[in-house]
Design goal:
332 residues, alpha/beta
Length: 332
């Protein structure tokens, strides 16, 4: 997640002074309606595959995945190979969506799963996460110099990759699905800004974007994840209706520090003005190694990550199959 390192010291101070009572008064969860039947998904996410994918992407081999460096290329090759093996086609001629005016290699990885409905397939649900990180430490005496970025954001990429596999195998999406692994997020949302403008100019028909950011460690709250821009759209409400549980909630810190504007969802919101939001479980209390060499696979809770993916499958399924656009921007 971009720019948070400037806020971290203040965030931990403020979080430590928040009482449980204050949390109960300020944190909101959209409770699912008991009259609505949640979406049923029989597909089971394989925890071993989740663990293996995350471990590979966050390995030293990827050299911290910095945009413009060889580690990013290695990570992109790994992601493209995954998409090919799971029969996810490139959206453009190639999987690589190359950023212009960037020194060194820089490209998003973009896959496409066509919808099954003759009309709805012209609408798109965008599932995304950024695969770049901050690379190798320079001028440090520490033995470990690689910022592996397991939580930030190999965890989110893992979730989106598993969702891509799910749709490819089940062919349950009536709308088309765009799978995007962004580069340049850590450089100022460069990858998402590039792709959002490009697709907008091509009159891309975007229904909604669900961006996944830092989900490798669970929160101690009564909902699984928080959503940025909670009050801006009906996305949180509909996700909880689709899953039949309190899957997403409101985290006050997300608004206080404008996290809606700090990840790749914001680039698409700026262009398309439709619901484009991020979900995360990094709550400023549960993980202290943001942009740190200790953000490694061994600290990730892969059981939690597997649960997260499994619990979100009904939501992304409904997003791609609802007869009408049920997720909408809230009017003032």
């Amino acid at each position: 997640m971009r720019y948070l390192y400037l806020l971290i010291p203040f965030l931990f101070i403020s979080c430590k002074t928040t009482s449980p009572q204050q949390k109960a008064e300020t944190e909101i969860t959209s409770k699912p309606s008991k009259s609505l039947k949640p979406i049923e998904v029989t597909y089971k996410v394989n925890p071993d595959e989740v663990s293996s994918f995350l471990k590979k992407l966050a390995s030293d081999e990827m050299e911290g995945r910095e945009t413009g460096e060889i580690g990013m290329v290695k990570a992109a090759d790994f992601l493209i190979d995954f998409l090919k093996k799971n029969n996810v086609k490139p959206y453009f001629k190639y999987y690589q969506d190359t950023l212009v005016r960037f020194k060194g290699p820089a490209y998003n990885v973009v896959g496409f799963i066509e919808g099954s409905d003759p009309e709805l397939k012209n609408e798109f649900v965008l599932l995304s996460a950024h695969y770049d990180h901050i690379g190798v430490e320079k001028n440090t005496p520490n033995a470990d110099k690689i910022n592996n970025g397991a939580n930030d954001d190999a965890s989110g990429v893992t979730a989106v990759a598993e969702m891509a596999k799910y749709f490819s195998e089940t062919k349950s999406n009536k709308r088309s699905v765009l799978i995007v692994f962004f580069t340049g997020e850590e450089k100022g949302l460069l990858g998402s800004k590039h792709l959002a403008k490009k697709l907008f100019n091509q009159k891309f028909n975007l229904y909604a974007q669900l961006n996944v950011e830092m989900i490798g460690v669970p929160m101690k709250r009564d909902y699984l994840a928080y959503i940025t821009g909670f009050e801006l759209s009906t996305m949180a409400k509909k996700i909880n209706e689709y899953t039949g549980k309190s899957t997403v909630g409101f985290l006050p810190k997300a608004n206080e520090y404008q996290l809606f504007k700090r990840s790749d969802n914001y680039s698409f919101y700026q262009q398309f003005k439709v619901p484009c939001q991020s979900v995360s479980t990094f709550d400023f209390e549960n993980f202290k190694y943001y942009h740190h060499v200790k953000d490694e696979f061994e600290l990730m809770d892969t059981a939690h990550l597997t649960t997260f993916i499994q619990d979100f499958l009904p939501a992304v399924t409904a997003m791609t199959t609802s007869a009408k656009r049920e997720i909408k921007m809230n009017t003032k």
